[in-house]
Amino acid sequence: MRVLIDRHDEYDVCQHLLQGLTVRQALVYASRLKNSRISAHLDHQMIASELMSSLVISDTADDRVETCSGGEHKRIVIACELTAHIKPNMLCIDEPTSGLDSSAALVVINCLKVLSRRHGMTIIASIHQPNNDLFHMFDSIYVLAKQGVCLYAGPPLPLRHHLHDSDIVLTQNDVPIEVALTIASDGKRMTDLEKLKSKQNSNESDDTLIEGNMRLVYGKQNPTKRFSFPDVYCLLMRSMRYAYISQWKTLALQIAVLIYTGLMLRIIYGTDIIVPDGCMTIEFGSGCDQ
User: Fold this and answer.
1) CA–CA distance, 166 with 168 (Å, rounded to integer)
2) C-alpha distances in angstroms, 214 versus 3, 194, 277?
3) Strand segments (E) across the chain
4) Where residue 7 falls among pLDDT bands split at 50, 70, 90?
């Protein structure tokens, strides 16, 4: 599992979740949509249960998604993306730990690491300000400065030696990743920035990094998904369930307004409003012959 360490704004993942659905329902609908082109019979309930177990959200299975915590929201979104029967070779996640406390962040990253090992896929995550425990959970890191400049690429443990070899002074109590991020974001330490940049460029080229992390994919690849009526039916059922659970008050109010409008028209204009000739008395003393 690899991480890009940079600085970004927090991104709200709740917009990807349809409020009113339970966690299990959200995963089941996601599984039906992602696997609609697979002819073999799939147990969508089982797929949802296995993902909830892997991501440690089984206790929230019957909770509505809007009542879950921030860390649970992130894991639910990840689970929705992994409901496909054929798992992706690579999963890119933007700031999976933003807005979380250290304990919740460790749970999220540990779940991602378990999924990476279990399904043999590469997970690339961008993180800003990781703590030391979180930092060492990754297999490879890629520290970025402004304009996408790479300051370090490799396993987490040798980062201290990399800083030392670049003539960056570190005390025993300094945390290497915090020092590297300070250099990356502090415009006053341009000298140290150039040292790290030149050291990294002399170690390994981008072509070598790409070649070392490539994996051949065999078989026919079809990234696009065509229109299908089962998908339309699934989306319609999901929308109806959402409207019934979360929007019933609005729907009831709209129906009441329509009924009230019809009754008022009936009282004001009488039964002549439905006469086919369209003639009805509007003003006092006037009729259809005037």
Assistant:
1) 6
2) 16, 29, 76
3) 2-5, 90-94, 122-127, 140-144, 150-154
4) very low
Domain locations in the chain as residue ranges: 229-274
Give the pLDDT mean for 83-91. 85
Q: pTM for this one? A: 0.68
For residues 43-50, give the mean pLDDT. Answer: 92
Q: Which residues contact 115 (CB under 8 A, 6 or more apart)?
A: 54, 55, 78, 82, 121, 123
C-beta separation of 124 from 91 below 8 A: yes
- In angstroms, rounded to a whole number, what is the distance separating the alpha carbons of residues 15 and 87? 23
Query: What does the pLDDT look like over 208-250, one tens digit per residue?
Result: 555 655 555 555 555 566 777 888 888 888 888 877 777 778 8
Amino acid at 199: K
**pLDDT score at 265:** 83
Strand order through the sheet with 140-144 = 90-94, 122-127, 2-5, 140-144, 150-154
Q: Tokens 């969508």 correspond to what residue?
A: 44
